[in-house]
Structure formats: structure tokens, C-alpha cells
Here is the input.
Amino acid sequence: MTEPTDIRGEHLHTALSLAASGVPVLPLRAGKVPFGNCRRCADNACGGRPNMKTPGPCTCPAPCHGWAAAATDPHAINSSTWARAWREAAAVAYHPGGAGLTVVDLDNAEAIAWARASLPATRIVPTTRGEHWLYQGVMQSANAVRPGVDIKSSMQYARWLGPGAGTMTAIPDVVRALTVKEPATVRPAAITVPARAGGGECPHRTPAYLDRGIAMAEQRITEARSAVHATVYRTFLAVLSTHGRCGCLTEAHTARLFTAAQAKGESARHCTDAWTNALTTLGL
Here is the structure.
């Protein structure tokens, strides 16, 4: 019956040891996920940190903002406000960017084989399914830069699995290049909108009515501060519910909406999926 306490004490000891070395740490729940937002920060009340997109440390006393909650202050880590988190913690995580590091997360044997053939040797930490290759330096984080390969550095967290083995080296250009993408050209999926019953005549008063609607939809997406996925879908749904049956929507209109969504971080695939799901919901 003492095992949970022993495990909790081990996690806390590991966290304090890492923090003393200048590595920002945070507790993880089961499933390798951070603790949810506290009441003080629910519904984006603190101004953006629940989305973990605002650089800098979290100012909330509880560890509820993912990577932004990572701390090196032993008084905060060992305080009563973190006590519940450590009681429920399943693992310790750290913010690589805050420690001046970049983790190349290799999720399978194929990804490891690619790294061994393409990347300079560095410190390696075994993981459950693959390896973490640690490099000195900070860069942009990104998921799925290659099959089975994620980059964890700035504004990201990684599970602590031990110090690893090998001599750590600087981030090579080949790793930095993994997050550099060509400027996206928005090509919305070809969309066939059924004609209206009774001839398909557009009921809108003037073309400006449609243009205003598209502009309002763009603004709604652009101003979203949380739940961007849901906002994009609901906006697409609203546009299609009003204009989707008369055939007046063009690729230029959908391109404007897709561009606004991608500017908020949505991928082209997510945009296409949201548009398709909206069409399906409306029976179009």
C-alpha cells in the first residue's frame, strides 16, 4: 500500500534534481499528458496560456498549462499548490527549449534507422517505442516532420526518461531544416455544391451580401483565441448553411476561408476535413 507514495516521492525527487540543474520540469498525468487548466484559468480567462501558444512561463501557481508550467524554482515545485499534481503524477516531463535543448523524438525502428544514417551522433535516450536524440540548442518544435519523427524544443514538453548516453552535440542543419516548409499554396478541395431546388437561383440580394458573409467568417476565424479547430468547423458550417445550396460559393471564397484557418495554425488537411464534415452534416 506504500507504492503510490514511493512513486510520488521518486517523481518529486527526480523533478527537484532536474530543476537544480536548470531543467524546467512539470508533472504528467497518466497517458503522458499535462494537468488540465485550473478554475482560475478555465475558458481562457488568463489570456491565452491554456492554449500553450504564448511564450514564457505560466504565472498560475498550479501546474496547469503544459510546457508553460515547467519550473526550476524548488519552492514552487515542492509547494502545497503542486501537491495534488504530484499525488496524481504518472511521470515527470521537462521543457527542452527552457533547458537549451532540442529532442528529436524517433517513434519506431524505421525512424531510428533514418537518424543513424542522416544525423550526427549525440546523446541518446531509449524510449518505450524508440529513442530521443538530444542536441544542444533551441529551435521551433514540430510534429510529424518525417514518418515517426517529432521535434520537441521551444514551447513543447518531453517525458524525462533518464540522462541517456553519449556526448551531446549542437543541432545540425539537417534537423533545423526539418521544420522549414515551403510557403503553403492554398488549394481547397474541389467542392461540388448541389443546385437549389426550383432552378437554383441565388436568393441573396446582391453579390456584396456573400462577400460580407465571407469577410465576417474570416474575421471570426482570425479572432479565435481558443478552440481553433472547433471555431473553424463552426464557421464553415455557418457559411455553408447560408450559401451552400445556391451554388454561389466559388473556389476563391473557400480559398479565403482556408487561408484564414491556416494563418491560425490549421493544416490544409484539417481545413479540408472540416469543410467536408460541414458538407456532410448539412447533407450537401
